[in-house]
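Lecture notes, part 5. Sequence design as translation. It can be helpful to think of inverse folding as translation between two languages: the language of shapes and the language of residues. The source text, in structure tokens, appears below.
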């Protein structure tokens, strides 16, 4: 009976989720890839807030955060630290990327790099690299939702069916509705997340410990090791190594990386104005308060369901829920957790599709006029690929997930430094990127993360930056006839965009694009028009490669 009740509630909400995603675009047909991938650049502050909160509050928040709290304790607070710092950095970087992309009609991080360095193949290379680092996140969300569905159904739905439901529901609306549908579903998800976690924050301490006082007293007296860095099992040989140096370097690296993460950039570019992003950066840290709840309840589970090991520790919070709440409440909490997988998974799939449709497949002449269709096909393929690997070779993507964030961080010099410093050459940026990614792989896959107590990704990023600068100064500067205004991003704080006009350019940016195609000349200086390629589906082709100096 309990399984039937919880499963019915879950099924009703899943059908409603697909319907809500489709409803989001009921009056919006056509519009090309810009409408589908970045919501026509028309999302206001509220939708951007729930969308970007949805990206950051994933199934990790219900499963992984509780599991980390259960296994280690205090080190899990790095999530709150890096997100809060990342939002502060995003206050400046978000509007800068938004203005640059709007001025040149770009729809993603691959577009931005291709335009900055004037080479379409740079966008294609970035798309391939980013896909390698994003696919593990799709797999992790599929796995997380499968675990949630199986648990809240009291085992009536198997893990394998749970994985398939995650793929089917997400693909069902994201292919049609794109970023706008994800934003609408994020509203439902946030209402449920805030409501269920608020309830659990009160219910669990009262039900199991008679209040927070007794719970905290027991934690201090019996589990004090969990309340300080490096947390439980962190000291000595064979410990976790999650000490103060790891905490600081991981928080710093992730705070820098999150602002150029492809899914974050998609959220930036979907905004109606730069001011909406600034307000969003101010409000988003408030959402982080919710992260403390599964972390604390994970530690509370140490006293209620002791002895969980391995992957079972991720179920610490749900063990408390299933063991003590009626089936209808379990169903609603399960829906909130499932939507915390669906929303970020939808954005990951959307971004991969956009990158390939825009920057890879568009290099093939026959696909150039059908970028949106190509992107939608890639969305299904990416989700299906992650699903198949979840069934057949789950450890493949799990191993890749170890380097996902550290690997994506290696794009930082090319994106942030490249957009403000024209002297950075393509050879320098790519050399640093190659060395950085190689260093990350070498350190992580040989078990040296942390290395000397420091996050391996930040060590690789330091090497990356040094190599990029050395190669840049050792080689001749790229000859690019475009003026600075067409190559570099302006200081986002100088923009005045209350009317929706990107102040960084001083002229109205395109509000969208159509499948009929636009010429790059419409968005660049007169000197570039002669060499620009005419893209289709609203795509801004990167300018033709600048002439190279004679040897």
């Amino acid at each position: 009976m309990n399984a039937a009740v919880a499963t019915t509630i879950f099924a009703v909400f899943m059908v409603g989720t697909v319907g809500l995603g489709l409803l989001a675009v009921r009056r919006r047909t056509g519009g090309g890839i810009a409408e589908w991938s970045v919501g026509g650049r028309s999302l206001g502050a509220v939708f951007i807030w729930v969308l970007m909160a949805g990206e950051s509050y994933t199934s990790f928040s219900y499963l992984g955060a509780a599991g980390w709290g259960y296994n280690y304790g205090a080190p899990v607070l790095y999530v709150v630290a890096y997100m809060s710092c990342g939002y502060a950095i995003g206050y400046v970087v978000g509007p800068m990327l938004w203005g640059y992309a709007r001025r040149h009609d770009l729809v993603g991080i691959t577009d931005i790099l291709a335009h900055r360095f004037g080479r379409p193949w740079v966008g294609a290379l970035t798309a391939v690299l980013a896909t390698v680092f994003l696919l593990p996140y799709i797999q992790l969300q599929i796995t997380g939702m499968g675990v949630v569905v199986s648990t809240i159904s009291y085992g009536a739905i198997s893990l394998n069916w749970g994985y398939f439901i995650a793929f089917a529901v997400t693909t069902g609306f994201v292919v049609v509705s794109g970023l706008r549908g994800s934003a609408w579903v994020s509203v439902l998800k946030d209402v449920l997340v805030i409501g269920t976690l608020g309830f659990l924050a009160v219910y669990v301490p009262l039900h199991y410990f008679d209040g927070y006082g007794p719970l905290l007293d027991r934690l201090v007296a019996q589990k004090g090791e969990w309340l300080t860095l490096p947390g439980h099992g962190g000291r000595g040989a064979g410990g976790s190594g999650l000490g103060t140096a790891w905490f600081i370097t991981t928080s710093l690296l992730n705070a820098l990386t999150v602002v150029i993460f492809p899914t974050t950039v998609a959220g930036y570019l979907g905004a109606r104005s730069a001011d909406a992003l600034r307000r969003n950066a101010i409000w988003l840290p408030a959402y982080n308060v919710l992260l403390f709840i599964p972390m604390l309840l994970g530690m509370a589970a140490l006293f209620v369901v002791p002895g969980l090991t391995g992957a079972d520790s991720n179920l610490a919070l749900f063990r408390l829920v299933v063991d003590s709440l009626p089936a209808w409440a379990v169903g609603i909490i399960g829906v909130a957790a499932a939507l915390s997988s669906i929303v970020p998974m939808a954005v990951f799939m959307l971004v991969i599709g956009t990158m390939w449709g825009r920057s890879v497949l568009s290099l093939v002449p026959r696909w150039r006029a059908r970028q949106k269709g190509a992107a939608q096909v890639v969305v299904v393929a990416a989700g299906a690929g992650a699903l198949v690997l979840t069934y057949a070779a789950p450890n493949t993507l799990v191993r890749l997930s170890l380097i996902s964030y550290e690997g994506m961080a290696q794009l930082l010099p090319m994106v942030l430094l490249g957009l403000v410093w024209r002297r950075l050459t393509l050879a320098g940026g790519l050399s640093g990127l190659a060395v950085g990614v190689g260093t990350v792989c070498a350190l992580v896959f040989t078990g040296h993360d942390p290395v000397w107590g420091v996050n391996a990704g930040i060590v690789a990023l330091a090497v990356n930056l040094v190599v990029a600068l050395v190669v840049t100064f050792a080689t001749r500067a790229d000859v690019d006839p475009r003026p600075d205004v067409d190559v570099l991003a302006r200081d986002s704080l100088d923009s005045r965009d209350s009317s929706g006009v990107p102040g960084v350019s001083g002229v109205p940016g395109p509000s969208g694009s159509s499948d009929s195609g636009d010429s790059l000349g419409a968005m660049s200086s007169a000197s570039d028009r002669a060499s620009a390629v005419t893209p289709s589906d609203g795509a801004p082709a990167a300018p033709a490669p600048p002439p190279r100096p004679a040897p």
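The translated text above is only one of many valid answers, since several sequences can fold into similar shapes. Residues 495-551 have pLDDT under 50 and may be disordered.
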